[in-house]
Design brief:
Blueprint (H helix, E strand, L loop, with lengths): L17 H6 L1 H9 L3 H9 L1 H5 L6 H8 L3 H6 L4 H10 L4 H9 L3 H9 L33
């Protein structure tokens, strides 16, 4: 029985759920391996050879090699694990996040300091298939089940 996942139609968002976790397991384990200095050195010495030790998909390996973090997320990567790649490269989280949004580090920092990204385009109940219908009160009294 497939689970109803009303959150899957939120534009521009990949939700890290159990399916994504399963898909990205080896990618995320690779990232965690970079917490050890010896593994970071091996990776930096020959990235492809180190990646080939992991049973990741070819697309996942290409995502890492090209440092395409958005692609890695789509392939099951979790940003908190993927941050280990950035740290290995000597990049801050702000630099990584900026690269994912097409901004420079300074542009990303300025956006976050000024209150974050605009709410323009955010989804609401009833828009394109009730993207957040799970938040609607149910029943006459406005509480679930009543």
């Amino acid at each position: 029985m497939a689970l109803d996942k009303p959150y899957l139609d939120v534009p521009g968002t990949t939700i890290f759920d159990t399916e994504q976790s399963r898909k990205g397991y080896h990618l995320n384990q690779f990232c965690m391996s970079l917490m050890q200095a010896a593994n970071r050195e091996r990776f930096k010495a020959d990235e492809r050879a180190y990646l080939d030790e992991w049973p990741m998909t070819g697309d996942q390996k290409l995502g890492v090699l090209s440092r395409d973090l958005n692609r890695c997320i789509a392939l099951g990567g979790n940003i908190y694990f993927l941050a280990k790649i950035g740290a290995t490269d000597g990049k801050s989280f702000q630099q990584m996040a900026g690269s994912m949004t097409g901004m420079t580090e300074d542009e990303y920092r300025a956006m976050m300091v000024s209150g974050g990204r605009s709410v323009e385009g955010n989804r609401f109940i009833g828009e394109d298939g009730d993207a957040q219908a799970h938040r609607q009160p149910q029943g006459a009294a406005g509480t679930p089940g009543h």
